[in-house]
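Lab manual, section 2.4: Encoding a predicted structure.

Procedure: take the sequence of the chain (428 residues), apply the prediction step described in section 2.3, and record the output as structure tokens. A sample record is shown.
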Amino acid sequence: MKRSPVGDSTGTLRTPSSRLVDLLVPRAVFSYLGVQVVTTVSSFVTVPFLARVLGPGPWGLLLLAQALNTALVVLMEYGFTFTGSRAVARGQWHLSEGGGRVAGIYAARGLLGMIAVGVALAMLAVVPGFREQPLYLALALGWALAAGFGAWWYFLGRGELGRPAALAVTTRILATVAVFAFVRTPADGWMVLAAYGAASVIDSTVMAYWILRQQSPGPRPTVREVIGLLREGAPVFLQQAGGALVGAAGTLVLGGVATQAQVSFFGAGEKLSRAGRQVLNTVSRVLFPRMSALEAADPSQARASRVRLARIGVTIGILAAGLGFVLAPSLVRVLFGPGYEEAVPVIRVLLAAAPFMAVTDLFGTQGLLAGGRDRAFAGVALTVASLGVALSGVLSTRFAHLGMAAGVTLTEVAMATAMLLVWKRGAR
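Recorded output:
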């Protein structure tokens, strides 16, 4: 039986295992999950505070800026978290020959950063709130550029998440403390963007330093090499971009057709939905390089493991959707306070997508992409996401925040269905 090497934390090679406990790599999961738990908790800790101090209008502007940041980070990452970590985990390059790959990814992100600046300038022309408060747009862009140069892909592939996780947790906590210390009036919302942007600058700078201590930068990448890396990451980017466009970037679309208060109603629900997505993405990013290696070594075991994980993921998703439906009024009352009652139906509609998100990840990212079916993955992601953006835009013009929520959920349902059908057709 063919075996594919996987790098361990010492840089040596080992063979993958089909056991779920080995696939999930508990130490790596807990390290990376710790970062996401702190990120999610800090976000929810600040939500009641910011919703009350800023009020629906100014908080809606902050949510617009955070949505732009999320979309631009997806652009800057460009799928390298998956394709880069896959290359490391499969042993396709080692410390002695990996400098070119590292330098190439940083060069590609420099190019993507220029595109991100162009996108931000376009948003300045389209979204009225940014024209009135351009500082919010500038800080959201700066935060995205800093986060985009992070090197999680490198440490995920090597399974060395202890130091990066500790660094990210520390900077995130310090940024959260700064928010509580300095935000005092509705005019102080920009300080939130500044605090978390500064944290990302520190994270990305220190990670780059750690990489340089392990290996030299390597030769300057050629244009052809950079283009090759962009082509390699394109399928993942299309799927990730689709999720951003129908999720966080839905806030931006809504910002062009609705009031800032209505943006805050959708943003409130989207924050809760994003928390679940962050947990899923955390497990997905740690699982992907291992599932990819197992797919190369033993496809039948990979399929069996994927089905078992799907059952677990869908069950958790159904429970989350049910709890969200029941607890939505209480969550709004506790987290957001008076004046946000219209966020209750938004939360219920968005959380209904939870089980479908699990299906999309396990049969799309962990199935098609991990199995090397990049073209099929990209085709499904691009087609469904494009239709979803159009549908969400139409619904939001008529039903505002609730229409956008319905469009996002319907897109998740379509994405999960398409990914599952395409995976099953290739698995026969």
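Check your result against the sample. The beta strands are 6-7, 13-14.
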